[in-house]
Structure formats: C-alpha cells, structure tokens
Amino acid sequence: MPKKIPESKIRIYPKAEREILEIWKYTCEKWGKRKADEYVRGLHSFIENLQTDRQGWRRVPYRTLRGIYFKHYEHHYVFFREFKDGTFGIMSVLHENMDLPNRLLEDIQ
Length: 109
Prior knowledge:
This protein is of the alpha+beta class. The protein is built from three helices and six strands.
C-alpha cells in the first residue's frame, strides 16, 4: 500500500520511498548530513509541486507504461501517474545515470 503524505493528494509508493532513503544515505556519505537533508527536502518540495507545476512533465514513451509521466529534479527523475480523483502516485525516483527504462520496469512490477 502506498504511503500518503497527509497535506496533499500525493502517495509515495514503498519502492520510491526506499529510493529516496537511499538517495539520502548516499548523499550523506558523500557530502554530509546537511547536504543530504537539503537535497531530500528539495526533492519532497519538488514532488509536492508536481500537481500545480505541470511544465516539464514528460510521458514515458513505452506502450507498457501508459499513463506514467516523469520530471527531472537535479540529478534524479521522478516517475509518477495522476489518477482520476487528482491523486498522484510517485512510483520511482531514479538517478539520471541509471538504465532508466529497465529500472522503471523493475520498480512498477
């Protein structure tokens, strides 16, 4: 079951939540806790603004992944879908250097 952020209509699915935690851990090890906190806070703010800032949304170009969009945040791509009730589901957060198509397919299955 996806995790719901109380103040919004955004749900972060467990896989995406784990990826965000891994981003924090990696950033903390490389550049310290302060930078990790700053980056992940910015990422969460970016996710919260997806509903109102539709500029830059891109459709995932694979038939098997219809209805999934992505948007770039610094060094990561956020993959999401919008449901009929206006709720957003954050499915995956992947680094720009990853094999994005294959990792995304793994994440949504």
